[in-house]
Amino acid sequence: MCKNQKMIERNYSIDILKFICAILVVFLHTDCVYRDYILPLTRCAVPCFFMISGYLLFNDGDIEISRLKRSTRNILHIIVWSTLLFACYKEAVAIHQGSVYIPSLRELFNFIVLNENPFGGHLWYLGAYLYVLLIAMIISKYKIWKYMFYAIPILLLTDLILGKYSLLFLDREFPVIYVRNFLFVGLPYFALGACLKKYSDKISKIKYYYWLIGGILFSLTSLMEKWVLLYLDKNPGREHYFSSTLLALCLFLLVLSFKKKEPTIYSTIGNKDSLYIYIFHPLFISIIGMIVGKIASNSIVNIYSFTAPFVVFLSTMVFIIVIRKIRLIQ
């Protein structure tokens, strides 16, 4: 009885972390005057999302196939309607500009193999998560999580070598979709979350201030890595550094260490709305950007350049509340 009660007891800190990551994603994608300075810090959001999923699904050394199947059905449903939504929006914009958008065979290949959604670049996360769940089914079926845990550093280092450090080590820059996909981002961070769950009893003995110090330290080293690569003129576009993984890990464990047992407004938003914020916010980046551009007032443009992420976040939240009220989402 005590064991079952422990299993169903909810740690609302995880939902608060989802809320934090949703905000970081909005700051990551929204253009503002200070965006370039905070990009290395906001990159920890998506790794945290994958770690949360692995942490929540993993239990007693494995993940039940029934849970993976249920999650797979849910994410597949979300992929379908979100892709259709952004396809309609992209076609509407193209028609307004006097053209029609038809994905090329190359774009369709990248969509199927590398999770690059041709209608919304940020939707790669959904496709990557779907593939991760399918791979997790295979891992759980054959009980080979131990080997998946061994593969985590290999996959993460490959991401760095082909990604942020490709110019430094290989003297060439690869398309971002080669590393920003299920294999080099989704799978290792999902497995890392599962690994943290497996050793959660030992990790819980570490005081929260160690994770806080680590978070501050790796925030600084993330910025330092960017400065060094810029100084060497070896800085590819994608802002994902060696310290990004360590920052995500410290943020995850810091929030988790508080073990909040009562819901708050932030945990409620994180639980119910974080995925919807992720999906819908680019629509408002585009729409609000067009509105501000048409106003053509220097004062409005200047104000928006500082407040854009907050305006986008609040607009997205209002939209989510409205469509939930009319039961378009649950």
Explain what you see.
- The protein contains 15 helices and no strands.
- Helix 8 crosses helix 10.
- By secondary structure, the protein is mainly α.
- It has helices spanning 2-8, 12-29, 35-42, 45-57, 65-96, 105-114, 124-141, 145-162, 166-169, 182-198, 200-203, 208-231, 242-257, 265-295, 298-325.
Features:
about 325 residues; mainly alpha; about 0% strand; globular; disordered N terminus
Distance from first to last alpha carbon: 32 Å
Number of helices: 15
Mean pLDDT across all amino acids:
94
Largest sheet entry: none
Radius of gyration: 20 Å
What is the share of helical residues? over 70%
Order of H and E elements: HHHHHHHHHHHHHHH
Question: From the helix content, strand content and strand pairing, which structural class follows?
Answer: mainly alpha
Which residues form runs of ≥5 with pLDDT under 50? 1-7
Quantity of strands, as a count: 0
Q: Looking at the structure, what is the overall shape?
A: globular
Our estimate of the beta-strand percent is under 5%
Per-chain topology:
Blueprint: H1 2-8, H2 12-29, H3 35-42, H4 45-57, H5 65-96, H6 105-114, H7 124-141, H8 145-162, H9 166-169, H10 182-198, H11 200-203, H12 208-231, H13 242-257, H14 265-295, H15 298-325
